[in-house]
C-alpha cells in the first residue's frame, strides 16, 4: 500500500523514480480505509533530503499511511525555504489537538549544545509532553533520541573524544523483541555524532532495555518495554552518499574531519561507498509500523488520552 503525502511535495518525484507507490491526498480520499496517522518532526537542516529518506522507509509496508510534517516555530530554518515550510509543514499549535499512531523525531546537528541552550528546547519539551497522550508510539533518531532520553528519563549525553562517523557492525541483543523480528544476529548501520549515552544509565532505568549495540560505536537501539518509544542512536535512514556529503561539508568549513570508518572502499575517497544498511533500515521501520504501531494502536486515537505512556 502507498504512503499518502501532500500532492505537490517535491519528494514525490524522487520516490516515483524509484518505483515507490506514493498516493496524493485526492486519490486517498476515495479509499474507505483507516490509515495510520504518522507525524514526522523534521529537525534536520536539509529537510527535503530527510523527507525522501524517511518516506522511502515508511513505504515498505502493506499499510496505508498518512504522513504529516512538523517543524519548530521557535527556530528559523536556514537550509529550507520558508515557502516549502509553509506549503508542507505544520507548526505545533496547528495540530496539538490531533492524535497520531506514530511520531518520528529526527536528529539535529546541535550536539555541542546543552539541551537547555537549544533555541527550541522549550517547544520540544512541550511536544515530548504532548506525545505521551497524543501519540501511540514514538521513534527517536540520533540527537532526537538523546533529547528524548534526557526529557523522559533525565539521562544526559556526554561528549565523545572525536566525532563518531562511519558504518559499523551491530549485534542484536534482544531478538525476541518484535521491532527486531527477522533481523540477522549482526547488521550494519551508519553513525554520525559527537555525543553518546552510557549503557549504564540505560541499564539503571527500569522502563528501558538495550536492543542492539556495536563494539565500536556503542549503543544503537534502546526500547521502552511497553513498545511505545524507541531510541536509535544511529542513522539507518541515511542514503549511500550522506556520510560523504557530511564529510565534504565539514571539510569546506575547515573542521578537518576524520574519514568515516568502514565507509569508503580501501579508505579511497574516489571509490563509491557500498550500501550495506538499507535492508536493516527497511526491516526496522516496517517492524515498528507493523508491530509497535498497527498491531496495538487504538482504532479511535482519542482513546490515547486514557493511557499515559
From TrEMBL:
Main enzyme class: transferase
CDD domains: GATase1_HTS (cd03131)
Residues of the site described as Important for substrate specificity: 192
Annotated positions for site Important for acyl-CoA specificity: 111
Catalytic reactions on record: L-homoserine + acetyl-CoA = O-acetyl-L-homoserine + CoA
A single GO molecular function term of this UniProt record: homoserine O-acetyltransferase activity
GO biological process, one term: L-methionine biosynthetic process from homoserine via O-succinyl-L-homoserine and cystathionine
Location of this chain's protein in the cell: Cytoplasm
Pfam families: HTS (PF04204)
Active site: 142, 235, 237
Sorted UniProt keywords: Acyltransferase, Amino-acid biosynthesis, Cytoplasm, Methionine biosynthesis, Transferase
Catalytic activity, EC: 2.3.1.31
UniProt-annotated binding residues for substrate: 163, 192, 249
Cellular component aspect of the GO annotation: cytoplasm
Pathway in which the depicted protein is active: Amino-acid biosynthesis; L-methionine biosynthesis via de novo pathway; O-acetyl-L-homoserine from L-homoserine: step 1/1
Similarity comment: family membership: Belongs to the MetA family.
General function of this protein: Transfers an acetyl group from acetyl-CoA to L-homoserine, forming acetyl-L-homoserine.
PANTHER family attached to this UniProt entry: HOMOSERINE O-SUCCINYLTRANSFERASE
Protein name in UniProt: Homoserine O-acetyltransferase
